[in-house]
Amino acid sequence: xxxxxxxxxxxxxxxxxxxxxxxxxxxxxxxxxxxxxxxxxxxxxxxxxxxxxxxxxxxxxxxxxxxxxxxxxxxxxxxxxxxxxxxxxxxxxxxxxxxxxxxxxxxxxxxxxxxxxxxxxxxxxxxxxxxxxxxxxxxxxxxxxxxxxxxxxxxxxxxxxxxxxxxxxxxxxxxxxxxxxxxxxxxxxxxxxxxxxxxxxxxxxxxxxxxxxxxxxxxxxxxxxxxxxxxxxxxxxxxxxxxxxxxxxxxxxxxxxxxxxxxxxxxxxxxxxxxxxxxxxxxxxxxxxxxxxxxxxxxxxxxxxxxxxxxxxxxxxxxxxxxxxxxxxxxxxxxxxxxxxxxxxxxxxxxxxxxxxxxxxxxxxxxxxxxxxxxxxxxxxxxxxxxxxxxxxxxxxxxxxxxxxxxxxxxxxxxxxxxxxxxxxxxxxxxxxxxxxxxxxxxxxxxxxxxxxxxxxxxxxxxxxxxxxxxxxxxxxxxxxxxxxxxxxxxxxxxxxxxxxxxxxxxxxxxxxxxxxxxxxxxxxxxxxxxxxxxxxxxxxxxxxxxxxxxxxxxxxxxxxxxxxxxxxxxxxxxxxxxxxxxxxxxxxxxxxxxxxxxxxxxxxxxxxxxxxxxxxxxxxxxxxxxxxxxxxxxxxxxxxxxxxxxxxxxxxxxxxxxxxxxxxxxxxxxxxxxxxxxxxxxxxxxxxxxxxxxxxxxxxxxxxxxxxxxxxxxxxxxxxxxxxxxxxxxxxxxxxxxxxxxxxxxxxxxxxxxxxxxxxxxxxxxxxxxxxxxxxxxxxxxxxxxxxxxxxxxxxxxxxxxxxxxxxxxxxxxxxxxxxxxxxxxxxxxxxxxxxxxxxxxxxxxxxxxxxxxxxxxxxxxxxxxxxxxxxxxxxxxxxxxxxxxxxxx
Length: 891
Description:
This protein is of the alpha/beta class and 891 residues long. Helix content is 29%, strand content 18%.
């Protein structure tokens, strides 16, 4: 510790603390433009000059460390005059069009002049210059105006230290100095990911969104991002019932960082294509109808279907809807529909996580909090292109790596994180189980396992060890197609570090052996004792904004809310008593089984809320054929989709910004949505629509008046949500389940001291090759997945012009050497054919894709990769394979 005096106050701070931080610790504010989150203090703006008694010159407070006995003056006449001089210099090279500036009303530059320096003769210094520097408008989402730039370097710091993209630098000299991507290429041609985080920290409006309008908001509403499972906090600027801008403050999980979707992709909310009135199919065409007509027709068809028995009714709930919506939906299907045939898209992404981790640990969810990444000494990422699919978590992983943590990446493609990895294992597609087994074999070979943890907290180890003795590291490495020495190096890194986390997503789960892959991650964590401690765990990254919540709410055929099993008579009796309604006793069908049932017409009535299975499900042609034969389909959505083309009734619903409710993010955190705008036309809240149907059918128990009332009911029947309420969330409580009481904030990490199932279970998981293997007819292997710019089936993101400019067309990634062998140039349109279908797309060269492999995103409707996918289901989780598809290509 060091002691110093600042403006007469004695201050004690840790050695190495800057004067700026020391002053702020006692409430003394020192103005600064360049300092941002205390990254790389450099004093570049010189606004934070202070006098240190005995020093030969004024010092910059943000870069000068406090020293024992130091006497500092932060606001005397000498300091004020110096700041006044600095401000003159900055002002002389600044364009003043304040009334049309993005930062009007919140410009820190103006605030310094008016509030801090009390200086208003802005242009007395030097010669007034006419600002003629070219504005860079090459990025689809924002502009850079060097005439407003004060060279504070904040954008460089956020790009370098938080987003960790490292693309910006100061260029040129003197009056011509500006901030541009390295090598002075345009922002549009750079590797900028358009996160907009530089815009958020710019103090002057030099960086501004293209679509902003001056004076463009009258209120701000805080809510939660509707895209991936990270659950970033959003602040929506509202004017005339329209979102005009988005930024983030007080982020529970995202530290105010956003990605391109969260910051810019809000055009869909007020898009002209929104569904605004109910539609009924008449003479083959969807025609406008009244709510009374639509509800009456749906109710009549449900009554008819119920006469055929429990298999005749089914429903798809939605990972994009709120917890409250999903709870009411599954309650409706089970009580009014009298069937457990309710499922949602988790069946296609993390059903194997729920099944696998439940077998190993007793519960299937992310065991750590996102904040714990900063505590990890080693991070193992496999089956996740994290920087594209969960961008803020990807940024946090890069931040931690930059601070010295080890990073291991095992992927079939050389993803961005591979550039930062201490060890990168480019495994063959579908060899995840072999990868984890190889790492564990290497750990056992070097006697690096945590024996005390294994003895005290696990069972099944002896049988597991016996299985592990059947193969060598070389055997497993050969299956994966990697160097066994590199596999050993990765294993040694993971095992020898104190705290470490495993991060995976659908590259592990979307296989016929997905459950085995998930259990293998659990085995690895238990083998090394990296579970049940802060900063240690297994972390499935959930893909959509509320896929965790939809599972929690019981939108699964075998689970009531809180994963209480439908096969348990005591659970069924509990819910029958709570709801005052009879529940079905027969087991329910999964999503893929329901689609087959629709096709063979055993399912007579299908209710789809916020899902687009024509694009998201495997083997799209099979889905289309099934829906084409359907007896009756009702779709509840916000836009016309590929699935509404098959609907008999379409019901218009609210988007996230039009409703109150909650989402549960990937780390089990329950967060509050707040209504910001009114919905268009006659659109209604999802739970309200379900209530209207229940009322038409004469069933009580659905006459809710608010989402808050629904959450209170959820808390009363769901043990892990017992302490959750909208009131607590409004008051700022940060709640993660399990939250067992009203005075608890839940569990930051899981399995401390004891696993949910008691002892953790080592599960034997041998490598089983994927069903699809390259052969003479189909000599290549296709991998599918998501990209940064788009979300799920593009229903929302395709309405943002900037996203369409960057990623508007379907594409297939191919290694340049493979393309050369086929005579293909980059940008050529090629056909990709599998045993299940055929699509066409432009080629995009990527050296990170192995030769004879391809990658294709699934987002693109009739050109989406799911026309090619399909095959054997995981026997436990019933998840279909998406990641290994044998294909042929042609021009």
